[in-house]
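Q: Could you fold this chain for me?
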Amino acid sequence: MSVSLKQIRYFVAAAETGRISQAAIDLNVSQSAVTAAIQQLEATVCARLLERTPTGVTVTMEGSRFLSQGRQILAAVAEAVHGTHISAGPLFGTVRIGVTYTVSGYFLPRHQMRFQASFPGIKVELFEAPRDVLERAVVDGALDLAVMLVSNLHNNAMLASETLLQSPRRLWLAPDHPLTRAERVHLAEIATYPYVMLTVDEAKHTSMRYWNALSLEPRTIFRTSSVEAVRSMVAGGMGITILSDLVYRPWSLEGQRIETRVIENEVPSMDVGLAWRRDTQFSEAAKAYRDFMRFAVAGVGPARPPVSTDPRHRSEEAIEI
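A: Sure. Below is the predicted structure, expressed as C-alpha cells.
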C-alpha cells in the first residue's frame, strides 16, 4: 500500500489544527474522509501518528517526525506545480538575505535547501540579526530582502512586505495542568498561573500588547531567549506560556509531553514574510528568491485560505496543492 498526497495533506491539517472537525472544514471535505485518510496512513507506516482525546487530537512522537516530513513533501509538490512560473532557465548571481532568530531556526532551512537545489547558480548570503537591524540594512541597501516576522515590522513607510505564513498563537501547558480540562481558555484564567516568558524576537513586547489590551499581566516566573528552555519548563509543569504553532513541538528535549489550547480572547498570529525596500529594483537572483518563497510556502503550514461551507462545494477527493 502506498502513501498518497491526500493522506499526507489530511494528516498535516489535523495535526496542525488539533481537531478532525476543523481540519475537515479547512480542507472542504467531510470528517469521515479525514479520519479514513489518517487511519490508512497510520496503517501504511505501521505507527500511531495521532492520539484521540476528548478535546481533539494530539501528535504522537512518531507523528511529530512524520509531520515535519509531510510539510516538506507538500511544499515540494507545491513548488513543482508552480515552478514553471518562477524561471524559464538557469540563473546566476548573488542575493543577500537577512533573517531573524525564529525564522532561521523554525522556518527557513527546509525552504533554503530546496532553493539552493533549484537554483545552483545563485549564491545566497544569509545574515541573522534582530528585526531593527534587518530593517536598517534593507533600507540602506545592504540586504536585498529580509525573511522575518513581518507582524513586528516598524518601518512601513520605507519597507514593503508580504506575508508568507500566519501562525496562530495558543496556550502551551503540561498534560496534567488544570487548564487542559477546557477546550478554550481566557487570558484572565491564564493570568492566575505561573508563566514562562519567551523574549527572543521581541516576543515579550508582542505578548504584552494583548495582555495590556485587557489590563492583565501574566504571573511571569522566568524570562528566557531559549525556546527549548520554555518547552522544557512547560512540559515539566513549572509554568505555562503562549507561543505560535510555528515553534510548537509536542515533546520537550526530555521527552515530556506538551499540549495546547485555543485562547478565547483575540491574540494576534505570528506572521512570517518577506520585506524589501519599497523603491528597490530587484536583480534576477533576488526576484527568483522572492518568487520561490511565495510558491514554496503556498498551501503549507497553519495558514489556510478561506473555504466554502456550502455542502455543494464539498469533495472528499479535492486537494489544493
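A (continued): The longest helix spans residues 61-82.
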